[in-house]
Amino acid sequence: MKKRAIIGLIILIIIIIILAFIFAETGNNSVKNENSNETNTQNSLNTSYTNEDENDLNSEVQNTENQTSNTTLDEFQENSQSENTSNSEENIDEESDNMNNQNEEIKINLIVNNKTFSATLENNQTTRELVQMFPMTLNMSDLHSNEKYNYLNSSFTTNSSRPSRINAGDIKLYGNDCLVVFYESFSNSYSYTDLGKVDNVNDFVKELGNGSVSITFELAN
């Protein structure tokens, strides 16, 4: 009887120990699970915060880049407008200078028998091409006792018209290559391109004489 009681008691103690062990393990597992859950929750929060921070940072970077791009574009547009305005003003100035230059007459000298006579040429395409050949000395032949002429080796731009009258001292281009200096006035039926006129006509005419004459053309100083 005592043996059975002892055996029963031992079995009970073993059962209690086993149950205690089981409860202990269950508690440890529960704590571990709670710790694991807390860790996962913390990691999730950290990840969320990290993603939000990254998104905020990326957004700030993108905004900064956009602002920089817009600023650069605005500066480029301002510079372009400034350059266009500057170029436009320069073009206007150049056109104005060209108009002023075209309105300015061209002063030249005609030298006959070592005597110098001034003349004034119009500022047009023909005269600008002609003076590129200056200084030049031409042996000019006489025609109809009213003009001296020479066929040049170059052709020029022409803008011919038919004046009703030629005046002494007129300098004209016949055709596109014949330079003519008139020393008599007369009614006319031919077409010429106007070049200019000798300033002191009377003294110039007296010096020409009859027949061919050598005339030097040069720009006045």
Q: Would you spell out the secondary-structure blueprint of this structure?
A:
Blueprint: H1 2-103, E1 106-112, E2 115-121, H2 125-131, E3 136-143, E4 147-151, E5 165-166, E6 170-174, E7 178-182, E8 186-187, E9 193-198, H3 201-208, E10 213-219
Antiparallel strand pairs: 1-2, 1-10, 2-9, 3-4, 3-10, 4-7, 5-8, 6-7, 6-9
How would you characterize this protein structure?
There is one protein chain. The protein has two domains: 1-103; 106-219, Cyclophilin. The protein is 53% helix and 24% strand. The chain has helices at residues 2-103, 125-131, 201-208, and strands spanning 106-112, 115-121, 136-143, 147-151, 165-166, 170-174, 178-182, 186-187, 193-198, 213-219. Strands 1-2-9-6-7-4-3-10 form an eight-stranded antiparallel beta barrel. Strands 5-8 form a two-stranded antiparallel ribbon. 14% of the residues are buried.
